[in-house]
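Throughout our pipeline, every protein is held as a single compact record rather than as scattered files. Nothing more is needed to write down the fold, since each code stands for a local backbone conformation. For reference, a complete record is included directly beneath this paragraph.
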Amino acid sequence: MGEYRQLGYLPEALVNFMALLGWNPGTEEELFTLDGLIEKFSLGRVQKGGAIFNIERLDWMNGEYIRDMSIDELTEKCVPYLMEDKLIEPAKESRIKNQESRIRNNKFQASFKFQETNEIVTFEWLKKVIALEQERMNKLSEIGELTEFFFKDKLRYSKELLRWKKMSDKEIKDNLDELIKILSSIESFGFDRGKIENILMPVSEKRGKGELLWPLRVALTGRKASPGPFEIMGVLGKEKTLKRLKEARKKI
């Protein structure tokens, strides 16, 4: 059990999964609370045949429990994995011996720093990052890989990744220039998902959604797959967004 918890499986998911290895509830129901298992479990429905350990089913089940968690609790549980992946560390180590426990007890406003840049962020900012990936996670240990681009100063990717289908270099450059111009005009205090989306969507419909939004996504994340660019910009903020777009333009 300890090894699976280390890999990012939740205790409640493991208990639920182990119970269903040799027991049939007699219904199609697969997800139970501990109290629900205690109430419904009976030796009469324990199967005599050998159980089959299906790791894909455990991953699915664990993901369902993750999606059912509050963002506060999920962020608490993700912090140790972000630390283990050397993305963040406590900003004031002397006050944070047991980070998860102290966050839960609200004894102080937790703050962290990026290991790469020493930038200081709050627990509230981390919640925004974790919330973007809550729907995609199956294990807590995946959070570092999924969110790594938020904690980096410079992203590594090839120029070709910025290209949507058969776009020319000039088209990529022109679209990046247009994005920089438009986003620069938005006030920093109003740089949120809703406002950005309202401004950029009409432009993307004119230029072509893929042509505008694909280079934007890659410039922000260095990846093919990620949460939506509007959501990402809302978390990164104006300064980092523009910096990443300008770095992408240098590749053309």
